[in-house]
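It is worth pausing here to work through a concrete case rather than discussing structure prediction in the abstract. The textbook approach is simple: state the sequence, then state the predicted structure, then interpret. We follow exactly that order.
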Amino acid sequence: MSQTSSVTDIARDYYDSEDADNFYAAIWGGEDIHIGLYDGRRSIKEASRETVLHMARRLRGLKPGARVLDIGSGYGGGARVLAREFGAHVTCLNLSEKENDRNRALTKEQGLDDRITVLEGSFEDIPEKDGTFDIVWSQDAILHAGDRGRVLDEVARVLKKGGEFIFTDPMQADALTDTAVLKPIYDRIHLTSLASFGFYRRELEQRGFREIAIEDLTNQLRNHYAQVKAELAERRAQLEGKISADYIDQMLAGLQRWVDGADQGHLAWGVMHFEKI
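Step two, the predicted structure:
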């Protein structure tokens, strides 16, 4: 088994598990599974939705009828905002059928199934023709790829000339030299590395992209994992019978590692916006 297929299978198995599905549905509210933007008042659900809106406002090409590909779309919360609020036609590509089923159900419930298509698959092999999309969108998903360069190749292939690529990803800091300090995080999410702002700048430039803006919001990564940890600990008793005790214990420990990594300056996160030239 190749590294790419192995990492993809591990991610699919994790997100398809009952524990993970119940955790994300309960703690995030079952719409968004990504890092939020906090202002001291927002709940996890509100902060996660604010990230979607913050990214959407940056896009020049997000107009009625725009074709958007959301890679690693999770429960489709972002896609529904893009379709409902901005009139886009969105293709969701995601490897977890459990998440895809919830995405389809919520999309139909909200009357958006004529503007959103949900596909099962990996963003390392996007099942779409060259130059199909005006925008490629991704939130905190590319870290799970076995070959991130291959993902960027696929993004470049399916994006139209002049199209926009906007995404977020939990990363390691550019200045980090001893990556061994992140091994507990790598082990928890079954990875051997994380990307960085510098990695994406270099790799996308090589594939014919121009940087529009990179917004460093690493403080929000710290805020987010701390908020999720606090919420999970507070609601632990309510989740008994829905999420296993072992999963909760591992999740609480893992979330603290992300908080510690951010506090120590080892991690990075932000909104990255590029144009295909």
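Step three, interpretation. The chain has a mean pLDDT of 94. The beta strands are 67-71, 89-94, 116-120, 133-139, 159-168, 171-172, 209-216, 267-268, 270-276.
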